[in-house]
């Protein structure tokens, strides 16, 4: 392996630390923000340099996904319960802004604001093509273990009674538990007694079903 420059070593150290803390590869935006780079081109250049020097390797078929190689791979090994096939099954998901976990708010502008990369088994995602992520704002779901600042991983599908969902209710978005009992209209329930149940006046559209949560380190 070729020797790394001091700057390249800093990049590699950050990748290893992020991977060890979160269990998934940092996004291009994460790396850019951490090092204060003006564009993503600088990030891509350093990743290519690390790849050329043999310390990381691109994963075939996974967008912008890499694995550590050699000694680095030994230091950042998967958890014992994860098989190698599961660990290599990385998915790259768009983060579509944030969602209110409180009182419903106006819909977020469309478009990807960031990306996250993680293995499908940990994300509990069954259909990656229909999966996406949203950042949580508010405290209405704290009793379900979802806190302000978390990132929730969702996928499209038909909700079942008790699922936590991203919903469009009467034109506004919120993250709540979906409640649908036999012969009764569906409604949204908070996991915090401070917040009331939400019954739609006109429409209730389910945008995604929550599968897992990512939590930033304090």
| Helical/strand content category | alpha+beta
- At the fourth level of CATH, the homologous superfamily of the largest domain is Umud Fragment, subunit A
Name the shape in a single word.
Answer: elongated
**CATH architecture name of the largest domain:** Ribbon
Please provide the count of β strands: 11
* Rounded mean pLDDT score: 78
CATH class of the largest domain: Mainly Beta
End-to-end Cα distance, whole Å, is 35 Å
Task: Count structural domains.
Answer: 2
- Binned, the helix content reads 10-25%
Poorly predicted regions are: 72-88
Q: Write down the CATH topology of the largest domain.
A: Umud Fragment, subunit A
Topology as H/E string?
Answer: HHHEEHHEEEHEEEEEE
Q: What would a concise description of this structure say?
A:
With about 220 residues, the protein is an alpha+beta fold. The protein has helices at about 5-20, 30-35, 40-50, 70-75, 85-90, 120-125, and strands at about 55-60, 65-70, 90-100, 105, 115-120, 130-135, 150-155, 165-170, 170-180, 185-190, 205-215.
In terms of topology, how is this protein built?
Elements: H1 6-22, H2 28-35, H3 40-52, E1 56-58, E2 66-68, H4 70-75, H5 84-88, E3 90-100, E4 105-106, E5 114-119, H6 120-123, E6 131-137, E7 151-155, E8 164-169, E9 172-179, E10 187-189, E11 204-214
Parallel strand pairs: 3-6
Antiparallel strand pairs: 1-2, 3-5, 4-9, 6-7, 7-11, 8-9, 8-11, 9-10
Give a quick set of tags describing it.
single chain, 218 residues, alpha+beta, Arc Repressor Mutant, subunit A, Umud Fragment, subunit A, 2 domains, nine-stranded mixed beta sheet, 6 helices, 24% helix
